[in-house]
Design brief:
Blueprint (H helix, E strand, L loop, with lengths): L42 H14 L4 E4 L4 E10 L2 E9 L7 E5 L2 E10 L4 E3 L5 H12 L3 E8 L4 E6 H14 L3 E3 H7 L1 E3 L9 H15 L1
Parallel strand pairs: 5-7
Antiparallel strand pairs: 1-4, 2-3, 4-5, 6-9, 7-8, 8-10
Helix pairs in contact: 2-3
Length: 214
């Protein structure tokens, strides 16, 4: 019988070699840190699983926003089925996720890079920055999750800090945010099993820091 993970990958159990003598000592492997990137899990999938975890436990209601599209051409091969042949994005998307946490509106973007030393500004769009600005004016909790996939590191960066960095790069022409800056201004999120990306811990830390500042 072949067991498979939810993603369809077969589970292969490495049985001990029959050639080993009965008196041989088994080696105990050290625990390795969880690395969602190396398991073939994209950032978006990991966040979606985390949101499902939070929802099932009544901790928060957060969903990925659907991207608005305009359908241009549809084929009907049979009456019970329709196939979209042509469609376009009807408008620029805002941010990836929004919802409610502890009675507060929560809105955030998730970005990923393979760069090891900095995060490129080209991965972020101006309309997303402006969307965060108006959400902050309504006292929403806004932030961006920055994932360095090759380093297996993920950071929470508050929208207030991101907006300042964005405005600075418009003046100076900087192309990216140095990892050192993100380490100083952001909150690192350690990947786990459940939830995959426990970003609400970073939100709680952010809120506590905001209370302390006031």
């Amino acid at each position: 019988m072949v067991f498979r993970y939810p993603n369809g990958r077969a589970y292969i159990h490495n049985e001990p070699s029959k050639e080993k003598t009965q008196g041989s000592e088994s080696k105990v492997s050290k625990k390795k840190p969880i690395e969602f990137g190396k398991r073939g899990m994209r950032l978006e999938e990991a966040i979606n699983l985390s949101n499902e975890y939070y929802l099932n436990r009544g901790q928060a209601v957060i969903h990925k926003k659907p991207t608005p599209i305009q359908i241009v051409k549809v084929d009907y091969p049979k009456r019970s089925a329709a196939v979209i042949k042509e469609a376009y994005f009807s408008q620029a998307s805002t941010t990836d996720y929004n919802g409610v946490y502890k009675g507060r509106y929560l809105d955030f973007e998730a970005k990923e890079t393979q760069n090891k030393t900095s995060f490129p500004f080209r991965n972020i769009h101006e309309h997303q920055i402006r969307h965060m600005e108006v959400c902050l004016k309504q006292e929403g909790i806004c932030f961006i999750l920055l994932s360095f996939s090759t380093l297996n590191r993920c950071f929470f960066l508050a929208a207030e800090e991101l907006i300042l960095l964005w405005d600075e790069q418009e003046r100076t022409g900087k192309k990216s945010i140095p990892l050192k800056t993100i380490e100083e201004l952001g909150i690192e999120i350690e990947p786990a099993i459940a939830p995959r990306i426990p970003y609400l811990k970073a939100v709680d830390q952010y809120l506590n820091e905001q209370k302390g500042a006031n």
